[in-house]
Fold this sequence. Notes:
This protein is an alpha/beta fold. Among the domains are: 2-65; 275-366 and 459-497, no CATH class. The chain is built from 17 helices and 18 strands. Strands 6-5-14-15-16-13-17 form a seven-stranded mixed sheet, with helices on both faces. Strands 8-2-1-12-18 form a five-stranded parallel sheet. Strand 10 (231-235) and strand 11 (240-243) form a beta hairpin. Helix 6 (133-142) packs parallel to helix 13, helix 8 (177-186) runs parallel beside helix 15 (483-506) and helix 11 (334-343) runs antiparallel to helix 12. It is globular and about 85 Å long. The chain starts with a helix and ends in a 9-residue tail after the last helix. Residues 93-99, 116-119, 129-130, 218-219, 249-251, 255, 279, 281, 391-393, 399, 402-406, 408, 560 line the site of flavin-adenine dinucleotide. The site of flavin-adenine dinucleotide has 32 residues, from helix 5, strand 3, strand 13 and helix 13. InterPro entries: FAD-bd (IPR002938), FAD/NAD-bd_sf (IPR036188). One of its GO terms (molecular function) is oxidoreductase activity. Residues 89-442 form the FAD-binding domain. This is FAD-binding domain-containing protein.
Amino acid sequence: GEAATMFRHRRALAALVVAALAASASAFVPSLHSPLNAARLSAASAPRGLLPGRVGASLATGLPLRAGRAHVGPMMQSAGAVTPENPLKVIVAGGGVGGMFLAKALQKKGIEVEVLEKTNKFARFGGPIQLASNALATIKGIDENLFDRVMKKFTFTGTRTNGIKDGIRTQWYTKFNAISDMADYFTLPYTGVIDRPDLQELLLDEIGGDDTVRRDAEVVKYEQLPGCEGVRATLKDGTQVTGDVLVGSDGIWSAIRAQMWDQDSRGPKSGTTYSGYTCFAGDTIQRTDYYFDVGYQVYIGPGKYFVTSDVGRGRTQWYAFLALPEGSKSRASNKDYLYELFNDGPEGRWSEEVFKVLDATPDDQIDQRDLFDRPPSVLRSWSDGHVTMIGDAVHPMMPNLGQGGCQAIEDAYVLAEKMGGVTDRSQIQGTLSSFYRERLPRTAICQGLSRLASDLIVSAFDTPYQPASQDDRFGPLGGPLSINSIFTALLRPFMGAIFYAQFGYLYTFHPKKCTKEEIEVLVDEVMTRHRVDAEAVWERVGLTGKDEQAENREGSGLSFR
Ligand SMILES: Cc1cc2nc3c(=O)[nH]c(=O)nc-3n(C[C@H](O)[C@H](O)[C@H](O)COP(=O)(O)OP(=O)(O)OC[C@H]3O[C@@H](n4cnc5c(N)ncnc54)[C@H](O)[C@@H]3O)c2cc1C
């Protein structure tokens, strides 16, 4: 009887080991198929037999040793063991939102980081970026001190009225109460905005400045090294940099993605296509009756929409989204062009609130940018051997949800958490695979929702139909009498539920919550500073007549990216 029990136990144990190995191996299936990885595996066969048994086999194949890790004692420490004397080194290609947060998160795990950034200096450029509650809870999860520093430069919009307005009638169509209600439900900090240059400077300081970031360092290719030696990145000037892992956080025109997926980094063979939409953006200092009560407003109407958001320091950022052919950029005056478009719809001139921000924005402060995106990469691995990707490099999305940067921050957090658990370099390949498998569904949903939102709002939404009793400009039947207008009116009662579902889903990712008391203190501090700053800027502009934003952006060219 005892022998039979032992046999059953052994069989169960063996089954468990086989299941664990199969599960680990399955994590590699897509990357094993890549030609580069096949080459790496054959190159890696050289060390087979140098180390005994499973350790040697693991080094040779790159398969993890999870099931047998307990057997590798100090006497048999693998050559790839991660120790304080031999820590992991991660090369991060691209010092944008994702790359900088990743650098900070990895450093917190005791991992060495080198950021290779294509541009030669961190000029203060780029407009404000919205960080939603999920991203703020992630930043808090990465580092409490970093979160506190972000809050010192932050403006909450989620505490105020936000929503969609009828762009012609200037009436609320629906309000996004879900933004604050869902943040309250999960006890998360409220959504808000921060200037990209402020965020960039702060992160640069947090990760050790020039000691960590190499500028003028455009990565042009990478090469997997045999066994657990890692990966080598080559820069445009021929310099080579080696590390255990290379992370492509090099944005929508990623060179890392181009090599991994054998595509061009941009153009018709890149897989990144023009979305059909272009976006104008500008910001201006303006004082409105509702400045302190309203966060952001989306004005809808025929064939286009307009967004304004308070971005702190008395300023309003705005975007105009239009369906135009690619490369429609050259024209004498963006301001005149927009003025004409928004002045002359079939139902008449758009809201005076739209014209107020347009009027107050100098022409040379208005930029246009064509918007590109990619379908979710569901069937392709984001990881190849010791290389993986985060952010726009692998899941660029339309800006309508304001989640592109937020998802890059979530990627950074998850990747760092997983890398922090690596005790031997033979686990790297499996770790990178499990990272992308975890991130793929959520980022794909965000990509899909963002795309759906832009298609709906530009192509399906219109001025909502109203009966003549509410709007008599269209005759006895009311109007406008288009399918889109009727659709927009019919959808209205469901909008609240749709947004509760959307924000509820987005905020389910929250590595570190706040307490209710913390949130109260934060809101008080941030919004008191917000009021004082805005009034000071308005007074100053009134005194000098100068545009503060123009001074900040000297020589930068772009106001957003
Ligand atoms: C109009 C607009 C508004 C948006 N608003 C929001 C918002 O409110 N909230 C939000 O969360 N997201 C927003 N986004 C999306 C957000 O900007 C991006 O998702 C985010 O910047 C992605 O971060 P990233 O680090 O992946 O890429 P990026 O921020 O693009 O950074 C990539 C970096 O890599 C560098 N680089 C490029 N190639 C190389 C190379 N070969 N070697 C080395 N370095 C390289 C670049 O110079 C750059 O610094 C918006 C986007 C647009 C277009």
